[in-house]
Structures are given as structure tokens and as C-alpha cells.
Specification:
single chain; alpha+beta; four-stranded mixed beta sheet
Length: 296
């Protein structure tokens, strides 16, 4: 059972299905509001629903125009411009629909062999596979020390794969499950850059808008918001910007995950994936955790 299936099973067994998602909250069939600190492994960092971003509205507009096929549209060039404005040192943007496709593209560009056990959804979602092969997984509010932080946390010591700056995998700030992978490349080894996978124009439109939504959020969110919950979260996490690296051991992490779920908080289902400080919540949303601390 992968991490996503485990997360679904635990939520359903305790609270029933999710009926609505808004901002940093998940609303369950049993009428319980959960604080989402997993946020689809970072893809929902701007919040669920259209109230916090315009990307979902952009997707609806594109659907109304019938742009649900993989035919070429202006959105592809708009997406490339939006991403390369954030990463001016790079020249090429590609997107891949699965971890298998991403692995093939990276192995072609970086000239390494994919071992069969490497290319799994569970490992890739946890950053393990990427960092172990020298590729950084960019996230919004990414800091210069993030690669070394993650390598240390994941206990990766693979000297033949130093973190490369020639390519990066991007976590798009779009609240969408299984949203594929976006990769940026520099002007090196260009003959080995594989083409993008076919992708519906509506999705490309939404991702493009999500980067402009991110630009607005970067002006609003910062240390003042993230540190507001340190007293509740610091016993269990080391915080780097909005990202939370667990202090709980791998052996006790599942118990910690279930404990948090019992007090209405959804953290990352794997200790290798960072949880995220939720935006738009209040200290009272952590009161149950404060009153019922996890002992480890």
C-alpha cells in the first residue's frame, strides 16, 4: 500500500470521506474539520478551492472553451514564460505525466541507469528517488540550503550523484492530485532533453495561472505567518520556511501520523515527505495537539 492509499484509508476509517476542501481545511462526512498539513505533498500549498487562487477558475474557463485535448495552444508558451521568469538561468521546460516518464527523461539527460526498484510512485513522492540521483525537487519558498537539508534528513550518501544545477524538477503550486512533473533544463546536453508528454490544455492553463498566484502569495506569506505556530509544532518538527522536517523516528512515525489524525490534523503520511505549515489557520486549530502531546 502506497502512502496515498494509506492516507485515504486512515481518513475514511475515522472520519468518512472528504466532502469539501477549502484553504488549509478538509471537511469530512462526519462533520469534522481537519487541518491539512500534507497539502498533496506541496501541490496545494496555496490552498484548496478557487477562493485562494485563480488557477481553478482558469481551468473552468478553458473547459468551457473545449480545450480538453492535447492539441497545441497558446497556453504552452505562456507556461514556459511563467516558469522561466521564476528560473531565469534555465532555458527549457518540459512536462511528464508519470514518475516512469520523468525517470526516463532524467536518465536520458543525466546519463544514469534506472534501477527497477528506483522508479516507484511512493519513493518519488517522498523526494527520495530524486535526491538520491542528484536532482533537486523545487518547492515554493525553496531556500538555498534545502537540498542539503533534505539529503541529510533522508540520510542519503551517494557521492557519485552530487546535486546538479543543470536541471530541476518543479512542484507546481496547483491543488491537483497526480499532476505530473515539470522539469527545467539549462542549455547543456540539449540533444538528450526528451519532449514533453501529451497533456490537456486545460491543465497547462491552470498550472500557468498557479505560478502567477504564487507570485502574489510570495508578497504576502512569510516568516511572520509560519512562526506563529512554532510553539505547537517545534516539539515534533524542524521548520525551514513553511516546510516541516519531522523529528520523530521512522519507527514511530506512523503512530505520530495517527495521533495527529486523532486530534484533527493531517500530516504527511511518510516521514520522508515534509509537512507544511498551514496558511489561514489559527493557534486554536492546534489546541487538541497541545493538550494531547505525542510522546516519542
Amino acid at each position: 500500500m502506497n502512502n496515498h492509499d494509506k492516507l485515504k484509508e486512515k481518513i475514511i476509517s475515522q472520519y468518512g470521506n472528504i466532502k469539501r476542501a477549502r484553504g488549509s481545511f478538509l471537511y469530512t462526512a462526519k462533520g469534522i474539520r481537519l487541518v491539512d498539513m500534507y497539502q498533496e505533498a506541496g501541490r496545494a500549498i496555496l490552498g484548496w478551492g478557487s477562493g485562494n487562487n485563480k488557477s481553478m477558475q482558469m481551468m473552468k474557463n478553458a473547459i468551457d472553451r473545449g480545450l480538453t485535448g492535447s492539441f497545441p495552444t497558446d497556453y504552452e508558451n505562456q507556461l514556459k514564460r511563467a516558469i522561466l521568469q521564476v528560473f531565469p538561468d534555465y532555458s527549457h521546460v518540459r512536462w511528464y505525466n508519470s514518475s516512469q516518464s520523468l525517470g526516463t527523461a532524467l536518465s536520458s539527460y543525466l546519463n544514469f541507469e534506472i534501477r527497477k526498484s528506483d522508479n516507484t510512485e511512493e519513493e518519488l513522492s517522498d523526494d527520495t528517488w530524486l535526491y538520491s540521483h542528484g536532482v533537486s525537487f523545487w518547492r515554493p519558498w525553496f531556500t538555498d540550503d534545502w537540498s542539503s537539508v533534505m539529503k541529510s534528513h533522508l540520510k542519503l550518501a551517494v557521492p557519485e550523484y552530487e546535486i546538479t544545477s543543470d536541471t530541476r524538477v518543479i512542484c507546481p503550486p496547483l491543488p491537483w492530485a497526480n499532476a505530473g512533473y515539470f522539469v527545467i533544463y539549462k542549455d547543456t546536453n540539449t540533444d538528450n532533453i526528451l519532449p514533453s508528454d501529451p497533456c490537456p490544455a486545460v491543465y497547462i492553463a491552470a498550472v500557468t495561472r498557479s505560478f502567477y498566484d504564487l507570485a502574489l502569495a510570495l508578497q504576502i506569506r512569510g516568516e511572520e505567518q509560519w512562526k506563529a505556530f512554532d510553539s505547537s509544532l517545534s516539539p515534533y518538527f524542524d521548520r525551514h520556511g513553511p516546510y516541516l522536517i519531522t523529528k520523530v523516528s521512522k519507527e514511530k512515525y506512523e503512530d505520530f501520523f495517527l495521533h495527529c489524525l486523532n486530534v484533527g490534523i493531517v500530516i504527511a503520511p511518510s516521514c520522508q515527505t515534509p509537512s507544511i505549515v498551514p496558511y489561514g489557520v489559527s493557534p486554536g486549530d492546534f489546541r487538541k495537539l497541545d493538550r494531547n502531546p505525542f510522546v516519542f
